[in-house]
Amino acid sequence: MIYLDNAATTLQKPEAVYRRVAECLPLCANPGRSGHRLSVQTARAVYDARETVAAFFGIADAMRVVFGLNCTDALNLALHGGLQSGDHVVTTSVEHNSVLRPLNALALQGVAHTIIETGPGGTLDMAAVAAAIRPDTKMLAVTHASNLTGILNPLAELGALCRKHGILLLVDAAQSAGCVPIDVQALQIDLLAVPGHKALFGIQGTGFLYVGPRAHLREVRQGGTGSQSSQPFQPDVLPDRYESGTLNVPGIVSVAAGIEYINTVGIEAVEAHDRALAKQMLEGLAAIPGVTVYGNADAARRLPVVAFNIAGLPSAETATRLDIDYDIAARSGFHCAPLAHRSFGTANEGSVRISGSWFTTRQDVEAALRAVEALAKKA
Amino acid sequence: MDQGFYLLAFDSTQHSMKADKLAAGHFRAAIVPTPTEITSGCGFSLRFYEGDAEVLLDFAHKLPVPAKLYHLGEKGPDGRRAVTTIGEGGAG
Ligand SMILES: Cc1ncc(COP(=O)(O)O)c(C=O)c1O
């Protein structure tokens, strides 16, 4: 099977990830609760992973890495924990529902938001972002890369803009983490939401939020932390404040193993590989008669995540034919990004998305292109 | 005769892991369940098997996480130890 749904979850992981999870599983006592040696060892595994994550993203204090369920969980903590009635948020039309839905729920509680429309090109207009910042703006919530077009937003510029206005920068790095270098200090990111199960090669049920020193979040859950246990209220201390309940230790270990793998091959090598894949996908699809590719075609600023449609063939049918006839896994529909589809004029039809990873080869993409070509011919 | 021991208590078990890592190679020490004589902090403490108050307080001061240094004295008739706070250190 050719798996081109890596933007949802990477299927193939480095061998070390499988091995480390298998090694960890039979030794996973409760981390940080019990004090026997296995419990201590498990807590140490979590701590070591926290340091690995912190180093990879330029995070000076590992305690500011808050492990959670997935990227959605991290985004919910950032948005629900960081905003309150009377606040205003600036966001964009390419956001995933894991940003849009919390913001819509918060709107009912008096948190206003402004959505910057990218239009069909899918690129963010910096002047429009700057113009949307108001005196009551508290946060800019922006994805690093669209999960439909792979187009990367200019984080350094956005970070500088946020600092200038004294507002928080929340970055959804669901698509980009593990694909391009992200340094929270250099980019002036206050809150970074990351899934473990995509390009960091962890298993599912993993993710984290970096909570920078300028961000003061309320916790969204209360419970046991293994600390201040006699106190009736949630402790303030990081990471405990935001990490109630038993952590997903095998998952956390898998994320660290994935990051170590990326460190071994080098993030620059991953970046170059992804750039080549993106170019091949974009140019290959654009050359097929009857195929429409969405978003600005500049491959240098895109990850290998490409949305397209074949004229006369509904997106779900294209994906099914790719799956059944060609053994190629792609994703059709709306990709949890309804406003981006509206910008592309595909709000009713959706599109097909193919997405690669470090383990995707040129041959894989070539096979997909030939399959799309054959389907387009028949359509 | 049991002379008691020094112990560092932390706000978070993850802080104790950090301190444990930094102590390794410098002190004979181990993470232990926090004795119930100490009611604040988290479930893990770093118990020292060597070092005097001055040296350990210096170590505590240099930690990047908040930590409290205690001395737990000889066991009393009820089996509990008298607790003396030596000082606080770290980024508290
Ligand atoms: C841009 C974007 N944000 C957020 C998410 C949510 O990630 P998760 O499934 O880890 O919650 C995804 C993935 O589906 C995504 O592509």
- Reported CATH architecture of the largest domain in chain A: 3-Layer(aba) Sandwich
Number of strands of chain B: 5
Radius of gyration of chain B: 12 Å
Chains forming the largest contact = A-B, 26 and 24 residues
Overall mean confidence score, pLDDT of chain A: 96
First and last CA, distance of chain B: 35 Å
Give helix % range of chain B: 10-25%
Give the structural class of chain A.
alpha/beta
Integer tally of domains of chain B:
1
Low-confidence stretches of chain B: none
Q: Strand order of the main beta sheet of chain A, please?
A: 2-8-7-6-5-3-4
Any low-confidence stretches of chain A, pLDDT <50, length ≥5? Answer: none
Largest sheet of chain B: 5 strands, antiparallel
Strand content of chain B: 35-45%
**Class derived from helix and strand content of chain B:** alpha+beta
SSE pattern of chain B, N- to C-terminal:
EHEEHEE
User: What is the subunit organization of this protein?
Assistant: heterodimer
Name the CATH homologous superfamily of the largest domain in chain A.
Type I PLP-dependent aspartate aminotransferase-like (Major domain)
CATH class of the largest domain in chain A: Alpha Beta
CATH class of chain B: Alpha Beta
Strand % of chain A is: 15-25%
